[in-house]
Amino acid sequence: MTKKIGFLGLGHMGGPMAANLVEAGYDVLAFDPVPAAQEQARKDGATVVDSAVAAVAGRDVVITMLPNGKLVLDVYADLLPAANPGTLFIDCSTIDVADAKAAAARAIDAGQRALDAPVSGGVAGAAAGTLTFMVGGAEADFADALDVLQVMGGKVVHCGGSGVGQAAKICNNMLLGISMIGLSEALVLGEKLGLSHQSFFDVVSTASGQSWALTSYCPVPGPVPTSPANNDYQPGFATALMTKDLGLAANALRDNDVDGQLGMLAAEIYTRFNQSQAGKDFSAIVTDIRDRSDQEDAK
Ligand code: NAD
Asked: Which of the residues 169, 192, 280, 299 is marked catalytic?
């Protein structure tokens, strides 16, 4: 029998994810406090209800796609007692590993089941149903969630127990942030030394300094025509979101006593850049490194 779904958080990501579930034939009760999000969900064929609690009544699966961990914990406090016992709660928001573990533990204490299932792939992936899901939780619950996640995703990976899906997400994004900063420093150093962007690309893309940031997402215009650098750094993946994810990574480094100096520094560098350029693609960090280097030069 097709699962009955409650969906909370119909923003940039949750809106299209819920729409894909409706299109695949699932019965979706949806809630978001913002009228424009409600209106769009109605157009997409979801049944929009007027409270979070109303969205979980009689549901088999409850999906949340919310801005932060505090909100997830607050919403769970209301929803867990309102849902049928044994309901599968799937949180797709990107939140602290510690919050994800706490949310799952509270769900299980309340007689429910829980998975953390953050995503990568952005708004385009949400719309196309090609997100990558990184899932943490019990094997049986993962197996039960698979049909629903596969409607919204192109790749679904069970990473381990509760919180380990979030761990995969922040480890990847911490490495991406560090890698983009390192690449940008090397590009600006090359500029100062008279190395053209194309020559840099031709050498480094097949040498030991190669990275996804260079070959798929080159932060300067030219070598990779599809990268945001060729479109005035329109996201893509916005600096605000990279800054958020690096903050979560920094919390996890601290909480777990990891000597993560580059991860901490990357969080600081993006926090500063985010103060003026939150809406630009995160690869625009190269422009900041160049500007700051030029200011040093002028001294
Ligand atoms: P968003 O701000 O567009 O959407 C969040 C939605 O949650 C909003 O519509 C808001 O009104 C709603 N909301 C707030 N309180 C609520 C409540 N009590 N009940 C129901 N809904 C409530 O954010 P987004 O871009 O859709 O991102 C959602 C999550 O996905 C975040 O954790 C983000 O880090 C993560 N994420 C985003 C992207 C991206 O490219 N946007 C990519 C990967 C992961």
From this structure: 169
